[in-house]
Write a structure and sequence with these properties.
There is one protein chain. The protein is an alpha+beta fold. Helix content is 42%, strand content 14%. A five-stranded antiparallel beta sheet has the order 1-2-3-5-4. The radius of gyration is 28 Å and the shape is globular.
Length: 682
């Protein structure tokens, strides 16, 4: 049976003079659910009753309309409303009885495999497409609203409970006593953002259900409804593969697009979602373990999503995978990854980090920061952060034993390691003249100890164009020692922007085992990237963006956004087209960098002032401090920040008040607008 709580009590009366309740399934929050017999047809049905006092005014009329519409829909994955009525002081709703078990009960056994999860998603999306075509939303998609067959494989999927969210006190539940409901509700459905609730809200809920079906846990959880809802709005969209799940990249991207905070960034139509699901399913059944599917190309959009699909870079990924194979076999390696600004090195590192984690490697990430005074060993701070996240005490114990003699010097360089490797404060280290050598040796030993034959380590160090001499000395020392011993299980990737590394830069003194230079993306890959962001787009418009991007994935995104914001790229049926008149006005911006500057010109003054102050603070900044520097009160700064986020210039982080520029090129373009005296003053 598709409801969990069962009660053998029977109803003494006939509901509405037509339905004879036979067994009470569930009673909670004033809502009673019965299996009943339809006295006219003899069929089993499900009857839900709720007090009229809990029903918003006008709901009964709307439900009667929806029942009439849904009763005419023919879809194998849908249990429509059959009847709506009033009996005494209660509203009742009737749907067909569907044999099987609820998805939430099915998931108690364990998560679904990828094939069954895609069957689930396709079935629910097909049901939604059938009813959306007639203007009806579900509004309350969750695992208990989906009935599936018992056993494997998944063959029968039915969406139930249409319309019940209008009458089952969802709003009351969200205020404090139903965290389960909150796990699947979209930000706008919960009233957390001032946006309309439409079909994209149902898609968000489907994304949350699909995530749980694959991961065995919901995307956001917490001890209270308030905490869960806050995560829906502020927490980063979770990646399935970041949990070590072996799922195709395209499946992960589909789920993340469904879970986008802004409805404009989600799938806009169920048909587009169904097309992507079908393409991935077909490719998997044809034997492709990780199909190279670019999602979103079938969508009909009136806005451009902020995060494009990952495209191309197959050669580079293969090179990194080969280096990981060597490290796993006991041959440590240093790989230098060079790219132009906006060339996609960070996105490549993100993708490789996912693949390495799937293969069982311990992934450690670090990054150099662009600061006036570069901090020593800044990129290696990520090692300390990785230890904080590591839950295997055996791993920590093994590493401590291997480099224990160097612990004091390592903690002196990276104080946050003190919680992991306690040291004796009075320990005598030796003459201070050798302090730098001790520290370099200690951190090199720590680096070498990170991996072993059971679990190799991958250390990804990004933006080393801003690194310090001592960090490069650590890498050189580690490499020299591992070459001398001929053993180790660590892969280090040193990534940097080539144009910012001049003669004499310490990163050039490294002798990597392998060099990867990110070439500009091929036009075919840029076209796929543009389509993943814009959906259906006229060929001339797409090729114009590709031409202006000059091989840069970041600039393809910037140009696409810039054309839309300037009304030079307009949404028309069946997709985006260029406006020739507006394009003529933009002839002075025929180079990609000018498009980025033009995007800033189109910002409201308050937003531009806030971002100029934020750019001085760094790639990551605190809103309160940026607002103070810009001289803006909160009621001005908060909307300005929201506008920058909506235009995909910044990302907001889950930590209160922290935001990050989407790319360094945006920050650098802002800084270039400031007069040197003004920049020094800020």
């Amino acid at each position: 049976m598709h409801h969990i709580l069962e009660d053998e009590r029977t109803a003494p009366t006939v509901v509405g003079g037509r339905y004879l309740p036979q067994r009470l399934l569930k009673a909670a929050h004033g809502l009673s659910t019965w299996v009943a017999a339809d006295l006219e047809t003899g069929r089993s049905v499900v009857v839900k009753t709720t007090p009229l006092a809990a029903v918003p005014e006008g709901t009964e009329l709307v439900l009667r309309h929806e029942a009439a519409v849904l009763a005419s829909v023919e879809c194998p994955h849908l249990a429509p409303l059959l009847d709506v009525g009033v009996d005494a002081d209660a509203l009742y709703l009737v749907t067909p009885y569907v044999p099987g078990v609820s998805l939430d009960r099915r998931l108690r056994v364990g998560p679904l495999d990828v094939d069954d999860a895609l069957t689930l998603a396709r079935s629910v999306a097909a049901a939604l497409a059938a009813v959306w075509e007639r203007g009806v939303l579900h509004r309350d998609i969750k695992p208990s609203s989906i009935v599936v067959n018992e056993g494997a494989p998944l063959a029968a999927v039915t969406l139930i409970d249409f319309g019940f969210s209008r009458a089952d006190a969802v709003e009351t539940s969200l205020r404090g006593d139903a965290p389960t409901v909150a796990r699947y509700v979209s930000p706008e459905r919960a009233g957390l953002v001032d946006l309309d609730v439409d079909q994209r809200s149902d898609l968000y809920s489907l994304g949350a259900v699909l995530f749980e079906a694959l991961a065995g846990r919901p995307p956001y959880s917490g001890s209270s409804v308030r905490e869960i809802l806050r995560h829906h709005v502020t927490a980063p969209i979770p990646s399935l593969r970041s949990f070590g799940l072996t799922v195709p990249r395209a499946v992960d991207e589909i789920v993340q697009r469904l879970l986008a905070k802004d409805p404009a960034d989600r799938y806009q139509t169920p048909e587009a979602l169904l097309a992507d699901l079908a393409t991935v399913s077909d490719a998997l059944r044809a034997g492709h373990a990780d199909p190279a599917v670019v999602i979103g190309t079938h969508d009909r959009r009136c806005c451009v999503v902020g995060q494009p699909a990952f495209v191309g870079r197959g050669v580079e990924l293969s090179g990194l995978a080969a280096a990981l194979d060597e490290a796993a076999a006991g041959r440590p390696a240093l790989v230098a990854l060079e790219a132009a600004s906006g060339g996609g090195k960070t996105r490549l590192l993100d993708e490789f980090a996912q693949q390495a984690a799937e293969r069982g490697a311990w992934v450690v990430r670090g990054r150099a920061l662009d600061q006036v005074a570069t901090l020593p060993f800044q990129p290696l701070q990520g090692i300390a952060a990785a230890f904080e996240a590591e839950r295997d005490p055996d791993t920590v114990g093994r590493i401590a034993a291997e480099f224990g003699a160097h612990a004091h010097a390592a903690v002196a360089a990276l104080p946050s390691l003190a919680d992991v490797f306690p040291v004796v404060a009075e320990e005598v280290l030796g003459p201070e003249a050798y302090g730098e050598t001790r520290t370099v040796d200690a951190l090199a030993a720590l680096l070498a100890a990170l991996g072993d034959h059971e679990r190799p380590a991958v250390v990804l160090l990004d933006d080393l164009q801003w690194t310090d001499r001592l960090t490069c000395a650590v890498l050189a020392r580690w490499q020299r020692e591992t070459r001398e011993t001929g053993r180790g299980h660590v892969l280090v990737v040193a990534a940097y922007r080539g144009e910012d590394v001049g003669l004499g830069h310490p990163v050039l003194d490294l002798a990597p085992d392998r060099r990867l230079n990110l070439a500009p993306l091929a036009d075919i890959d840029l076209r796929r990237l543009v389509e993943s962001m814009a959906g259906a787009i006229d060929g001339d418009a797409r090729d114009t963006v590709v031409s202006l991007a000059e091989g840069s994935p970041f600039m393809a995104s910037a140009v696409l956004h810039g054309l839309v914001e300037a009304d030079a790229l307009v949404c028309r049926h069946p997709g985006w087209v260029l406006d020739p008149d507006r394009m003529d006005e933009m002839q002075s911006s025929r180079r990609s960098a000018a498009f980025l500057a033009r995007r800033l010109d189109l910002l409201p003054p308050a937003t531009l002032e806030l971002l100029l102050a934020a750019a001085v603070l760094g790639r990551e900044f605190d809103l309160d401090l940026a607002a103070h520097l810009a001289g803006q009160p909160a009621d001005t700064a908060v909307p300005a920040l929201h506008d920058a986020r909506r235009r995909h210039l910044i990302w907001s982080r889950s930590q209160a008040g922290r935001s990050t520029f989407v790319h360094d090129r945006i920050r650098e373009t802002l800084l270039a607008r400031l007069h040197p005296d003004e920049r020094r003053s800020l």
